[in-house]
Amino acid sequence: MKLINATGKKSAILLIYTGGTIGMKEDPSVQALKPFNFSQILEEVPELGKFAYRIDSYTFDPLIDSSDVEPSLWLALAGLIEERYNDYDGFVILHGTDTMAYSASVLSFMIEGLTKPVIFTGSQLPIGAPRTDGKENLISSVEIAAAKDAEGHAIVPEVCIYFDTVLMRGNRATKINSDNFRAFRSPNCPPLAEAGIHIKYNSGIIRKPEDWDAEPVFHTSLDTRVSILKMHPGITPQIVRTIICSQDTRAVIIETYGAGNAPSKEWFISTVREASGMGKILLNVTQCPAGSVNMDIYATGKGLKEAGVTNGYDSTTESALGKLFHLLGLYAENDKVKTSLEIDLRGEISK
Ligand code: ASP
Questions:
Q1: What is the distance in A from the centroid of ligand 1 to the CA of 163?
Q2: Is the separation of the CB atoms in 268 and 234 below 8 Å?
Q3: Which residues are catalytic?
Q4: 176 CA to middle of ligand 1, Å?
């Protein structure tokens, strides 16, 4: 174990640039924002040079708008972190905001037993813009990624999203605003830290590894045969059937109303039973921005439970998707996936 701060050694941070608005510039030929070379980001943020840390960077090629994120990027990110794990004290990932909550969620499941911070950040305005939010986001993320306690352990050994002065658990955050600097929210989990004059860590809820000296396990098998059914009044039996009984899916996230409720009509419940009988994993997540699923309160929720639907508790949809991709990749047996869905693996659900 390296006692970097305690021995006075410099912390080392790896800054990983995947794309997103933070590094974009207007391309006059198409009159739209496009990613540009990373070396210019460091030129735009000379403040980083004031830290006593070693900051190395790694740039993905091609740089992407995060709407183009594919599981291959998550595998590449996990592979890079695994390969460089012992060379750095923390990792900062610059990523577009649009799908940042998906990427942070899935990475949190792909890395088990994390002992170092992995902080996702980005911005709403490009870093070269006069009123950019990118500088503060980047500078504070680097500081958090390097932060150690008196014993030399990372203060936040979790996959997180840092945005607009708030550090959130990655698998709890969701993008809630497309043009405000406060772009993310973590409705069911308090902030892990808040940055004012000082960065105040909420140490009571920050997860710690069981063994600081153990190497994390990197899970690199993802199975993406998951679909999402968002309930809405007027949805037709054909549409529900097409989504939940498809041969191409192993699991379906059902975004239900309120505390996990769905129509009590016979056609709906019997279609859910049919999908369940086909062995599909059906996970109940609420469409409410905050709060939890409880399938014992209303008859409409009880019907789903009896039809074999699994409780997603207070999971975000992004987190449920990442957890399913990971668990389906890990287990060939759907029963094992269902059992693990009910367990809080990385702080993603409150039970
Ligand atoms: N479209 C951009 C992206 O997600 C938006 C952003 O970075 O804020 O890559």
A1: 13
A2: no
A3: 21
A4: 13
Strands (E), 69-115: 90-94, 111-112
66 CB under 6 A from ligand 1? yes
Q: Classify 87 as helix, strand or coil.
A: helix
Digitized pLDDT (tens) for each residue of the chain, 351 residues in all: 233 343 445 789 999 999 999 988 777 787 888 777 766 667 778 899 899 999 999 999 999 999 999 999 999 999 999 999 999 999 999 999 999 999 999 999 999 999 999 999 999 999 888 999 999 999 999 999 999 999 999 999 999 999 999 999 999 999 999 999 999 999 999 999 999 999 999 999 999 999 999 999 999 999 999 999 999 999 999 999 999 999 999 999 999 999 999 999 999 999 999 999 999 999 999 999 999 999 888 888 888 999 999 999 999 999 999 999 999 999 999 999 999 999 999 999 998
Q: How far is the CA of 97 from the centre of ligand 1 (A)?
A: 5
Q: Are strands 199-201 and 193-195 parallel, antiparallel or unpaired?
A: antiparallel
Contact 97 CB / ligand 1 (< 6 Å): yes
Using an 8 Å Cβ cutoff, are 131 and 86 in contact? no
Q: How many residues does the chain have?
A: 351
With 0.85 as the threshold, say if the pTM is over it: yes
Report d(CA 244, CA 348) in Å as an integer. Answer: 24
Residue showing tokens 């600081």:
212
Task: Output the DSSP codes for 154-171.
Answer: BS--SEEEEETTEEEEGG
CB 210 within 8 A of CB 240: no
Integer Cα distance of 291 and 298 in angstroms? 15
